[in-house]
Amino acid sequence: MSRRCQVPNECPVRSQRKHNLTIVGIEHLNREGYKMLNLNEIERLLIEHGASDRHEVSNSIRYYLPKENQYIYLNKQAGNRHSGLVLHPRFTINRDTLVGIEGVHSSGKFNHKSSYLKFPKRYNSGKDKIHYGIPFGFDSENAFTQFINILKTIFPHYTSSARTQVQTRLRRLAKCYASKEV
């Protein structure tokens, strides 16, 4: 049995939109009515997976994953949408793989915020370009862990430009083929 939270000022959940108060505490539900991880749980799991370099602004929290060499953002305005974790747009080609993990969802194609300073810009609906990334949400800790483990295996990494990464990969392939011919 659940009801809407009627005490927004005392509510421990940062986004007070559309969450339910239950007898055992606060449980976040997505639009389909399934439980999903809230931002505090995602943040805790990120720290457990080695995230560092926390930088918080009004709309987002930036973390750096040193093993994956990636900057990621937590969308503080996610509410009940699957957009709590935001990845660099380079992972657009891997979106289907990541959403294919059971319990991983995405609320839309891109999430736009001026606070995503480590991500590129594009035109959204205004006159100026704005930073953007790919949003993801999770139903369970297991889904989040699988997501991070697959993220570790995906190339390219964030450290340099896409062109530099492609050139480096081509050099490695050329060396590999040269050594096989000899």
Features:
182 residues; alpha+beta; three-stranded antiparallel sheet; 11 strands; 25% strand; disordered N terminus
Description:
The protein is of the alpha+beta class and 182 residues long. The chain is 26% helix and 25% strand. It has four helices and eleven strands. The strands form two sheets. Strands 4, 5, 6, 7, 8, 9, 10 and 11 form an eight-stranded antiparallel sheet that branches. It starts with a strand and ends with a helix. The model is unreliable at 1-31 (pLDDT under 50).
Poorly predicted runs are 1-31
Question: What separation lies between the terminal Cα atoms?
Answer: 72 Å
| DSSP helix fraction | 25-40%
The number of strands is 11
Q: Could you describe the largest sheet, including whether it forms a barrel?
A: 8 strands, antiparallel
What is the general shape?
A: globular
Describe the structure concisely for a colleague:
Helices cover 26% and strands 25% of the residues. It is built from four helices and eleven strands.
Walk me through the topology.
Elements: E1 3-4, E2 20-22, E3 25-27, H1 39-48, E4 52-56, E5 60-65, E6 70-75, E7 85-87, H2 95-99, E8 104-105, E9 111-112, E10 121-123, E11 129-138, H3 141-153, H4 162-181
Antiparallel strand pairs: 1-2, 2-3, 4-5, 5-6, 6-7, 7-11, 8-11, 9-11, 10-11
